[in-house]
Specification:
Elements (H helix, E strand, L loop, with lengths): L6 H4 L11 H11 L4 H32 L2 H28 L5
Length: 103
């Protein structure tokens, strides 16, 4: 008989317990919507970690490119990065207007 592995058997889980002010509990539940709060929070943390990793990789790439880049290349990159960061800031601001303070 073949072995049927369940999701819980395949995934490794670690529990982290956090405490939040009672006044924030309803906001967190509302932000999670239909999703369970632990699942919503895990997704939120994963997005933040991915954002940080993307920033780190981008900074590494720029550092390598600077070693061989011309002054014009560097100027173009700096302008492009400034535009991207401005766009990201605007998106984040819009996101905060539409979401819970916890997101």
């Amino acid at each position: 008989m073949p072995c049927i592995r369940t999701y819980a058997q395949v995934m490794a889980f670690k529990r982290i317990v956090i405490s939040v002010p009672e006044s924030r509990v309803s906001e967190i539940k509302e932000a999670a919507g239909e999703q369970s709060v632990p699942s919503w929070f895990a997704a939120l943390v994963a997005r933040r970690l991915l954002d940080q990793e993307s920033d780190r990789l981008w900074d590494e790439w720029i550092a390598k490119a600077e070693a061989t880049a011309t002054p014009e290349d560097l100027e173009w990159v700096e302008e492009a990065v400034a535009e991207l960061r401005q766009f990201d800031a605007e998106q984040e601001q819009q996101s905060r207007k539409n979401a819970s303070p916890w997101e």
